[in-house]
Amino acid sequence: MAEKILNEWFLNSGVEIFLHHRLDSVIMEGNRIIKITMENGTAFCAELFIDASYEGDLMARAGISYEIGRESRAKYGESYAGIKEIQPGEHQISVKISPYDNSGKLLPYVIDGSTIGAVGDSDNKVQAYCFRVCLTDIKENQIPITRPDDYDPKRYELLKRFLTQRKALYKSIGMGGYNMDVREVQWIAKEVYWFPIPKRMVLMEGYFSHPVEPYEIPYRCLLPQQDECRNLLVTSCVSASHMAYSSLRMEPQYIIMGHAAGVAAALVIKSKRPLHLIDISELQGKLRKQKQILSLEHIETK
What we know:
Layout: H1 2-13, E1 23-29, E2 32-38, E3 43-45, E4 49-51, H2 57-61, H3 73-76, E5 110-112, H4 157-166, E6 172-176, E7 180-182, E8 186-192, E9 199-205, E10 208-210, E11 215-218, E12 232-234, H5 242-248, H6 251-271, H7 280-289
Parallel strand pairs: 4-12, 5-8
Antiparallel strand pairs: 1-2, 2-3, 6-11, 7-10, 8-9
């Protein structure tokens, strides 16, 4: 249904969609993107580009600087950043699971808990990715779920054991408000004091969830450094710390930022002004006319 609605939007707005076109290369001239070429040989030239890919493919191939991993608490003064305390809770493993295989080696994806660093430190790890799979019990809508050619059951031993055991201020272009929500980062083997003998068990490190007040999303988070590229807007892999991104990373906010990027792109092309010197007041004015909420102060009460 969601795909059907999106396709109707594209059809009604006259947008041309190119499916199965994976980015292969980028040609730069100074700090401007001149042309992008797909793996199938199709090339696109434009005055301005928007990278709305989930992993910033165009941004990375254009040489834009970026970081991967969790910043320390000290870097930006974020009290919830970095490596987390190992704490009980509904996202922690609730059953006893040994971290070792039959030969005494750690299971795949399990890390020795003594090597992960101190609470609040930085590392190069990111939260777990997950797939929201849509299934149906309507036979005519089903397709077979087949065994992948490279399937290795050892990679899922941990899951098997678990299941077995259980059975405006910032030149705002939109508002965000989802929890700071960091999914599991890593599985670690750590000594747990199960009476009468301490044993090493599998524990999860990294999960964190904390409510936030609605906040303004600044235009600048869509922009790379001007000396690196001056004709690219990025709407998913935005400029944000790991903790800030844990709230921004939801599709409704991607849509909000994508909407703003599209309006900004149109303004820049018409006005011939650089992306980094856009008239933010004009951009905000157009967004408000299109019912974008930029600040709690601008919500009309009935």
